[in-house]
């Protein structure tokens, strides 16, 4: 598992075409893999919670230049399980600067009202569910658009055949 500081500082390589080596991801028998890949179209959340599903979907998003929302989702997942309570505020600030604040290097697709509200809330107490509303909003955005494109892509269809 990638820790939060690695996740926030990782430099992703962008591609301008779909990834070619889909078989690099296959770790199970071809039949088991195809069954799992076919199940991903039933549940977006279970796909991104599956390590291989997350990796494949992220690679696809990177090829489409829209991986920042998934990276935010992952950073929030890691934030939620931070073992050191003294690091919560620092991690929240790092996530805010990386993904949410105006001009952030990996700016995510939030409604401006949500962005402003979170900026104000950052001044108060911070709990492990601090980003829950924003994460839900981002999951809805990903489910509505890039996930649907992924399911229609040759990349996904090739996994399932």
Task: Walk me through what this model shows.
Pfam families: RGS (PF00615). This is RGS domain-containing protein. Residues 43-160 form the RGS domain. The chain is 61% helix and 0% strand. It is mainly alpha-helical. α5 packs antiparallel against α6 and α5 (68-80) packs antiparallel against α8 (132-144).
Give the oligomeric state.
single chain
Average pLDDT number:
83
N to C succession of SSEs? HHHHHHHHHH
Structural class: mainly alpha
Please give the largest β-sheet.
none
Number of strands: 0
Gap between N and C termini = 29 Å
Our count of helices gives 10
Cα Rg? 17 Å
What is the percentage of strand-forming residues?
Answer: under 5%
Helix content: 55-70%
Low-confidence stretches: 1-23
Overall, the morphology is: elongated
InterPro entries: RGS (IPR016137), RGS_sf (IPR036305), RGS_subdomain_2 (IPR044926)
Protein name: RGS domain-containing protein
Domain RGS: 43-160
Pfam families: RGS
Any descriptors?
RGS_subdomain_2, 161 residues, mainly alpha, RGS_sf, RGS
Q: What is the structure about, briefly put?
A:
It comes from Octopus vulgaris (Common octopus). InterPro entries: RGS, RGS_sf, RGS_subdomain_2. With 161 residues, this protein is mostly helical.
SSE topology sketch:
Blueprint: H1 4-9, H2 30-39, H3 44-49, H4 51-63, H5 68-80, H6 88-100, H7 112-121, H8 132-144, H9 146-152, H10 154-160
């Amino acid at each position: 598992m990638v820790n939060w500081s690695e996740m926030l500082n990782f430099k992703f390589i962008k591609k301008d075409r779909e990834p070619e080596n889909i078989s690099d991801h296959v770790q199970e028998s071809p039949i088991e893999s195809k069954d799992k890949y076919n199940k991903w179209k039933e549940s977006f959340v279970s796909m991104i919670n599956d390590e291989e599903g997350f990796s494949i979907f992220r690679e696809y998003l990177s090829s489409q230049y829209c991986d920042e929302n998934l990276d935010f989702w992952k950073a929030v997942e890691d934030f939620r399980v931070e073992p050191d309570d003294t690091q919560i505020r620092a991690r929240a600030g790092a996530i805010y600067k990386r993904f949410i604040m105006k001009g952030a290097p990996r700016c995510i697709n939030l409604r401006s009202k949500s962005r402003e509200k979170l900026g104000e809330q950052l001044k108060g107490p911070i709990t492990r569910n601090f980003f829950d509303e924003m994460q839900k909003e981002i999951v809805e955005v990903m489910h509505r658009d890039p996930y649907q494109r992924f399911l229609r892509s040759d990349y996904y269809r090739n996994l399932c055949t």
